[in-house]
Specification:
CATH architecture of the largest domain in chain A: 2-Layer Sandwich
Helix content of chain B: 25-40%
Strand content of chain B: 15-25%
CATH class of the largest domain in chain A: Alpha Beta
Oligomer: heterodimer
Helix content of chain A: under 10%
Distance between the termini of chain A: 41 Å
Radius of gyration of chain A: 22 Å
Largest sheet of chain A: 9 strands, antiparallel
Strand order of the largest sheet of chain B: 13-12-9-10-11-14-21-19
Order of helices and strands of chain A: EEEEEEEEEHEEEEEEEE
Chain lengths: 165, 508
């Protein structure tokens, strides 16, 4: 089985052959890899280097905690990779940006108006959660198309707050 | 201060949650005292409920409907026959009306007398009282002024200055203002935050001490007229006025300064006839001038660092004092034993501007070994909710010297693994690599102005990236094989587990 695995934007072609051997970008790797008792904990010995990894899948993304660092990535088999490639060419950077609530909270301020131009990093919503005010910012410049929340409103996680084009 | 007759305490109700409730329960267990936990609907599965002998539901998740409802807390005390109340920190711990109501209910409040709480809780009264006792203060306005009066007064005090909530604590409602133009907006924001956090939007301003270090003194006072200090804690590593790292002692404080500040702290506590554990917070400028900030009339989050360098269990002392006995220690601390440092492990993402994180902790591995203490309210499978503060755990390390404590902290942080939510362990790891921090060269603006998550963090090595890719792929592959096995049964002659085991072994 061949996989395209992307970790921190770096791609690896990883093949697990029917004989159980492991190949990375065409080179064979010898790794001793065993699940430990706990659900997502694994022990790895590679070139005498002994490591522990926590490996979990969440919403289609893989999270790997290895040697004090958290890596994020995707693991796609060849067919899924093909589909993903086709989908991403259909999208480009000029699309809508949806500012959603990263956690449940209370909208304390919306310092922008519909139709207003916003710069990258500009705050569009102030959301209070865990007793702190959190500023939600736009990742790039654009125009506020729609404000879908109001001051004083309690919002659930993932609720659409502001749309920027 | 009158000597009170010894009070019997057999069962303590803890009007708090999370790690501090667990901490208090542990002290009670050590003393053979029964414990009662209270919990909101959001906290049914919290650790403090699991650790307590009895647990009572006090209503909906929002604190004002549960942990702040005195009537429900007293009902719980009656129902369980508790004879004393420990408030922890936050919630009702610094509410004088609560302390009084506890006494009126015929219960023992494990904390200071209501009068000491109300005096120290009222910034103006606190300043006047300690000033009379000869304690140095930072210039500022009294609370309760209208915005235009504050703006006028601010011109005399000078910028930069700090807007603070009169009912404040924990950094809520605080704003630094660099110039006059920004003051009206800062006042409005601070009022709003204070209103929502404490139900009281009263604010005041104070001169900002530039290059200040936040150094506080632990106080213990009993009903037999003894008031002592247990040395200082350095809490200058803060972000948005939230402490992130505390240590005891402070590398900035020498024996002479400790004696001077300690005497000031004892005087400040005595000026309100303080009893039980409390903390005098002070700012110290680069020339070692110190100013009284406020007194926290409760147990502090960071009390464990003092415990580790004094060997004193502060919660047990609190209970002993509440029982009307003499406190254990016989005098103020002269020389701390070794060095202790505490990292607050919060549910917040240091790579995303410390955005709070909620969700379920999917895996957790706790640090252990020599010199490591963990005060925690979490476990694998625990759900972090948005209703309360985001403190998950406190990791405290002790060493004979500051460098040994730091190196132990580094090691313990490496061992500490939390998955499922974002947390600030990477922040602490970076901090423990910072030369400025290791050299003791920092002040309260260090984290916000001179610290970056990228300074000490190198790019991951190619080998580690590849290893991460390999393990993710192997786990994904294994899952896939296990899933397909359910559908395509008997296609292989060996069991799926054996097969997975085989490719793992073949690569040895």
């Amino acid at each position: 089985m061949k996989y395209i695995t992307t970790i921190n934007d770096q791609q690896f072609e990883i093949e697990i052959r029917p004989d159980g051997s492991l190949w990375v970008n065409g080179e064979q790797r010898r790794i001793d890899f065993l699940p430990l008792g706990e659900a997502s904990l694994y022990s790895i010995i590679a070139d005498n280097l002994s490591m522990e990894a926590l490996v979990e899948e969440r919403d289609g993304k893989w999270e790997i905690l290895l040697r004090g660092r958290l890596y994020m990535g995707t693991v796609l088999d060849e067919r899924a990779q093909l589909l993903a490639a086709r989908r991403s060419t259909a999208m480009d950077d000029s699309g809508e940006i949806s500012i959603r609530a990263p956690m449940p909270g209370l909208v304390v301020a919306v310092p922008v108006e519909e139709g207003q131009e916003v710069e990258a990093g500009q705050t569009v919503v102030i959301l209070e959660s865990m007793k702190m005010e959190n500023e939600l910012k736009v990742p790039r410049k654009g125009v506020v198309q729609r404000i879908s929340c109001e001051v004083g409103q309690s919002v659930e996680q993932n609720k659409l707050l502001v749309t920027v084009i | 201060m009158t000597e009170s007759a010894p009070q019997n305490i057999q069962k303590i109700l803890i009007t708090n949650r999370g790690e501090i409730a667990v901490r208090v329960i542990r002290a009670c267990r050590d003393l053979g005292i029964s414990t009662v936990a209270v919990y909101s609907d959001a906290d049914r599965t919290s650790l403090h409920v699991r650790y307590a002998d009895e647990a009572i539901n006090i209503g909906p998740p929002l604190a004002r409907d549960s942990y702040l409802r005195m009537d429900k807390l007293f009902d719980a005390a009656k129902k369980t026959g508790a004879d004393a109340i420990h408030p922890g920190y936050g919630f009702l711990s610094e509410n004088a009306d609560f302390a009084q109501a506890v006494a009126d209910e015929g219960l023992i409040f494990i904390g200071p007398p209501p009068k000491a709480i109300s005096t120290m809780g009222d910034k103006l009264a606190a300043r006047e009282t300690v000033k009379k006792a000869g304690v140095p203060l930072i210039p500022g306005t009294e609370p309760g002024l209208r915005d235009d009066d504050i703006v006028a007064a601010a011109k005399d005090i000078g910028f930069p200055l700090m807007v603070k909530a009169a009912a404040g604590g924990g950094g809520k409602g605080m704003r630094i203002v660099e110039n006059e133009a920004d003051l009206p907006n800062a006042l409005a924001a601070a009022r709003r935050e204070a209103e929502s956090a404490f139900g009281d939007g009263t604010v005041y301003v104070e001169k900002l001490v530039v290059g200040a270090r936040h150094i506080e003194f632990q106080i213990l006072a009993d009903t037999h007229g003894n008031t002592i200090h247990l040395g200082e804690r350095e809490c200058s590593i803060q972000r948005r006025h939230q402490k992130l790292v505390e240590e005891a002692p402070s590398s900035f404080v020498d024996e002479d300064l400790r004696r001077q500040m300690g005497e000031m702290a004892v005087k400040a506590a005595q000026s309100v006839d303080y009893v039980n554990a409390g903390t005098i917070e002070a700012l110290v400028d680069k020339d070692k001038n110190f100013y009284f900030l406020e007194m926290n009339t409760r147990l502090q989050v960071e009390h464990p660092v003092t415990e580790l360098v004094t060997g004193i269990d502060l919660v047990k002392e609190q209970i002993r004092i509440a029982r009307g006995r003499r406190m254990g220690p016989t005098g103020s601390l002269v020389e701390p034993n070794g060095w202790a440092i505490e990292c607050r492990i919060n549910a917040e993402d240091p790579y995303q501007n410390f955005m709070p994180s909620v969700g379920t902790i999917s895996s957790i591995i706790f640090p252990t070994g020599p010199g490591v203490r963990l005060d925690s309210g979490i476990y694998s499978g625990y759900e972090v909710t948005p209703y309360y503060d985001n403190l998950l755990a406190k990791l405290i390390c002790w060493g004979e010297t500051r460098p040994e404590a730091m190196l132990r902290m580094r090691r313990a942080l490496e061992e500490f693994k939390i998955m499922g939510i974002k947390h600030n362990i990477p922040f602490h790891q970076n901090l423990m690599s910072s030369f400025s921090f290791l050299a003791g060269n920092f002040d309260t603006s260090f984290v916000e102005e001179r610290f970056s998550m990228t300074t000490y963090e190198d790019e991951p090595s190619e080998t580690d990236l590849e290893t991460a890719a390999i393990v993710a792929t192997l786990v994904a592959h294994r899952k896939r094989q296990l899933a397909s096995q359910v559908v395509v049964k008997g296609e292989r002659d060996t069991s799926n587990w054996k097969w997975v085991g085989r490719w793992e072994r073949m690569n040895r």
